[in-house]
Amino acid sequence: MSVAPYRAGTWLGLTALASLAAVGAALISQHVFGMEPCPWCILQRAIFVAIALACVIGLVWHATPGRVLSAVLVLLLALSGIAAALWQHFVAASSTSCNLTFADEVIGVLRLDSAWPDVFSPRASCADAAVDLMGVPYEFWSLALFVLIVVAGFKALRARPAA
What we know:
Blueprint: H1 8-31, H2 39-60, H3 64-90, H4 102-110, H5 112-115, H6 117-120, E1 132-133, E2 136-137, H7 138-158
Antiparallel strand pairs: 1-2
Helix pairs in contact: 1-2, 1-7, 2-3, 2-4, 3-7
């Protein structure tokens, strides 16, 4: 007996939950354990929130166009998250200042830091925010989740339609 493949809604729902859990973990790290975020950390938080919102599109708009739009948005956002995590690790973390970088500009244009300062306000330089969690750079945890989200996005794109 074979196991039926998951529906797109399952993949989108799990992706939304994982994305919001990542933001929750980042907030706990910041507000409980004092790990202050840099602009690239904040940009990744914003991408996780945008991924969750893209998933909601597919969960609300059940028809095939909604599912496809949602999955494509999730894929594009996750790929941008991968780029942000890699940039943070290989470029920004070795920089003494990350003011006026692409991440700073996006946060400023979207006014995230003034709308929700406790969630989206950068409070450290990229070099100061370079910390490890269980021996792995924090941004690599984010990178790993973005990669898993890419997989889930492809699964949602190829999933059978709802009955």
